Structure formats: structure tokens, C-alpha cells
Amino acid sequence: MYSIAARGQWLVQCLSCFSGVARSFCSRTYFGDGVDDGFMSVEGLLNGDWKSQEIDFPDAKPESENSRGGHSWGNFNGRRSFFGNVRGDAEKVIVILQQEGPGYDAKAALNDLQIRVSGLLVREVLLGILRTINCANKTRCAKLAYKFFVWSGQQENYRHTANSYHLIMKIFADSEEFKAMWRLVDEMIEKGYPTTARTFNILICTCGEAGLAKRVVERFIKSKTFNYRPFKHSFNAILHSLLVVSQYKLIEWVYQQMLIECHSPDILTYNILMCAKFRLGKLDQFHRLLDEMGRSGFSPDFHTFNILLHVLGKGDKPLAALNLLNHMKEVGCDPSVLHFTTLIDGLSRAGNLDACNYFFDEMNKHGCTPDVVCYTVMITGYIVAGELEKAEELFDEMITRGQLPNVFTYNSMIRGLCMAGRFDKACLMLKEMEFRGCNPNFLLYSTLVSNLRNAGKLSEAHEVIRHMVEKGQYIHLVSKIKGYRRC
């Protein structure tokens, strides 16, 4: 292992390699349709590893299973039957709530159901309401959800969990009932529930748009009830939550508060800060943080290397990236598929497809089998460059090698086919993906329909829409469009 001095020297060498990275790469997008600029692959990795587990499970076993002993509860059919019954009860509850109005007593109707209230039931009902919220019904959804929340909390042998509070808070947030949402936070604290990173995420997502984000952060910094056990102190949890919702400037401010309160940064803190600095285009500060991390005795970890490879890729620095990959091996951190994919993604966005091909071959030589994400990155790069034939070759290769395309792979291919005017093949690919068990998403349908319409192929576009109706997705997509585009 390298000494602290050696690590510091290596970091200084990295700084010289990074000095030519252009700031303009920080805001580049693909296709101009709002797709992220590539750094989300790095942030997504950080978020995935630090995500809290807050899923409710049934708080007791069904009586029929208890009577047979613990062994029967482990039976798959028994569990499936139980969860099926709970979902059935949740649907009955939602039907009753939807009938709420003058002359109808929903509370009495719920009591008449004589169902057993559990954490799973509450979760299913609240999630069901959350999925239906749009501009037209948001106020009513909030009222119905809260009516059920109060009623369920009054039932015998049941007590709300932090997760159920978070769900009703999310409903209030989506319904723009902000005062009610804050009252729930106060109620949680009064009743002794821990305010976790999930609580913080809901509030910061809502209040950030209203210009209240800094006040929310200040409140959480001072709160004695803020509790997120995977972190050594709550500042890292707050920094991570701000990274999730892209509040990069607030990350800088929170870090200063962290230092004021004499908390020392660790490797996790540095990784978050470097993500934020890069997003803000402050590459000089990015470099200083990297240098400071080395002087503080911290060795780059899996995430740090991924961040550095992303920066080098987007800066079109293939030689420096190769040196970094070799250094990783020397210090015992073998590059993974993810590291190669991150680098290839950055180089692709920088327009250096030759370097992408080189590192794609290198990862195979080092025993890293490209996965569906890596293939999709390569395919997308070729589509952006207008090299559809090479994209098709890779698409066929990935299937031959047992890597099934996902919805993002198909979206890139369909977009490329439409750009080349091969609309028949694009429509056939839609059918092919469904045959393979891959369900189209909103972006894919939107890509195909908009390209067909722009080409004057209205009948084909209507056929795709008709297909959406048959699949039961059209109403859901219209709801999303109304809720997010017309408000």
C-alpha cells in the first residue's frame, strides 16, 4: 500500500492531468431532450449505495398461518395469498374513499369492512392514492389520504410508522398542501419518530422550488431528532440528500456549517463535494478538494475513482484515464465494468468514439464483460454520431452475448432508426421489445410518436397511440402530461 506522502504525490499528478478539462462539458446533453449530461451515472452510484431502507412489512402474521406454526409462514404460497388479500383490501378501501361526499360517511363504511389494518395495508392505500394525483384532483386526493391516515391510526393493534408518515407527507407535497406537510413533521417529532434522510428529501424537494431550501437545511442541522444511522454524523446525510435533489450550491453552504461545528470531512464527504463542484463547473475547487483529500490521509475509494474517470472522460483525456486505470490496479482496486462504462460514457459525450472503442476492447481483455448499460452507452454514442450501422452491429452483438437490451437501449435504437428515416424498422423494434418482455416507457413512446408525426406519418403515429390504449398505458401517460406539463 502507498504511504500518505505517495498518495498525495499521486493526487498532485492527477491535478496536472485534469487541468485541461473544459468547463463547457458540464452542461452538455444528448439529443436536446432533457437527458442528463452523464454525471448522473456517478451520482446514481453514490445514491444507490447510501439509500436508506424504509419499507414497511406486515407487523403480524395472518391468523391462519400462525395457527400452523412458523414453518408455514415461510411457504411462498401462503405469503402470496396474504399479500394478495392485503391488496384486495386496499382496493376496497380506495373505492370507499372515492365515494366520499355529502351524505356519505366514509368512516362508517371503512368500519363496516372489518379489515385488519397493518403497515402493508396503509402503504398500499397511500401509494394507490399517490399514483392518481394530478392537477385536477390534488386537493381531493390530499383530503381522502388524510382521512384514511387518521382513521387507520385510530385502529386497534396498529401504530403508524415513519414510512407511513413519509407517504402522507409525499401526498401533501404533490398536492401542494405545504402547511399540512409541515404539521406532519411537527407531529412526527412530538410523537418520537426519528426524522430521517427520507423526511429531509421530501421537504427539500418541495421547499427547494419555493426558495425555502436553506431554511429547511438549517432546521435539520439544528434538530436533535435527525437520525440516519449509516452515517457517522448527520451532516453527511444532509449532504447526500442535497446531492440527490441537485442542490449543489447548498452543499457548499452545508459543508461550511459542518466545518464551523468542528466536524472533519471523511471520504464520503469529499466524494459528495467533488460531485457538487464538478456540477457547478468549479474545476479549480474540484482539484483543490482532491489535493486536500490526499493531504488529509484519505485514499481514493471505489466512488472517487469513478468520479475521476468521469471527469477525465468528459474532458477527452484518454491517456490520463489509462494512467488512472493502471494506478487503480497498482493500489489493489481493480477497475470494474462500472468504471469502464463511466469512462466510455464521458468519452462518448466528448465525441471521442475511437477512445470509446479502445476502452471497450480493453475491458474485455481485463475480464470485464460489458453489461447492458455499457452496450447502451456505446450504442447511444454511435446514434448521436449518426453511425447507425455500427450501433446495429453492437445491438446484435449484445444479444448474441446474452445481454438483453433494456428500455433505454431500445429508445436509442428507435431514435436512431427514426433519424435515418427507417420508420418501419422502428415500429417493428417496438413490437420486438415487447416480445422480449421489455415494456416501453413514456420516453420511448414519445420518441416514436413525435418522430412519426414530424415525418408526416400520422396514421402510423395514431397506430402507436392505439397500441398504448390497448396496453392500458394511455390514461396513465395523459395523467402524467397533465400533471407535469400543464401545471
Summed up, what is this model?
With 487 residues, this protein is mostly helical. The protein has 27 helices and no strands.
SSE topology:
Elements: H1 4-18, H2 40-49, H3 63-66, H4 70-73, H5 76-98, H6 106-113, H7 119-131, H8 138-153, H9 162-174, H10 178-190, H11 197-209, H12 213-222, H13 234-244, H14 248-260, H15 267-279, H16 283-295, H17 302-314, H18 318-330, H19 337-349, H20 353-365, H21 372-384, H22 388-400, H23 407-419, H24 423-435, H25 442-454, H26 458-470, H27 474-485
Helix pairs in contact: 1-16, 5-6, 5-7, 7-8, 7-9, 8-9, 9-10, 9-11, 10-11, 11-12, 11-13, 13-14, 13-15, 14-15, 15-16, 15-17, 17-18, 17-19, 19-20, 19-21, 21-22, 21-23, 22-23, 23-24, 23-25, 25-26
Organism: Rhododendron griersonianum
Protein name: Pentatricopeptide repeat-containing protein
Family: Belongs to the PPR family. P subfamily.
